[in-house]
Design goal:
Helix content: 40-55%
Radius of gyration: 11 Å
CATH superfamily: Cytochrome c-like domain
Number of domains: 1
Structural class: mainly alpha
Length: 83
């Protein structure tokens, strides 16, 4: 939860209901069994990116709480995909 707080994930996401962005469970259901999804999601966390689920893009790390290491990004992705 510390990484989630540091990156301000809950500003746009919740665990189980869409808010400004899809819920973590929706993301997990959509990507869990897709090859290379974890790598794509890690890159999106580390760099930001265009909206895939509506109009709200993933902001770059500088707007979310600062740089995110590859290891921390993978930790967050693994947590989300486990929901």
């Amino acid at each position: 939860m510390e990484l989630i707080d540091q990156q301000h994930c809950m500003f746009c996401h919740t665990v189980d209901a869409p808010f400004l962005a899809p819920s973590f469970r929706q993301i997990a259901e959509h990507y869990r069994d897709k090859p290379d999804a974890a790598d794509m999601l890690e890159q999106k966390l580390r760099l930001g990116g265009k909206a895939h689920w509506g109009d709200t893009p993933m902001p770059p790390p500088a707007e979310r709480g600062g740089p995110l290491s590859p290891q921390d990004a993978r930790t967050l992705v693994d947590w989300v995909l486990a929901q």
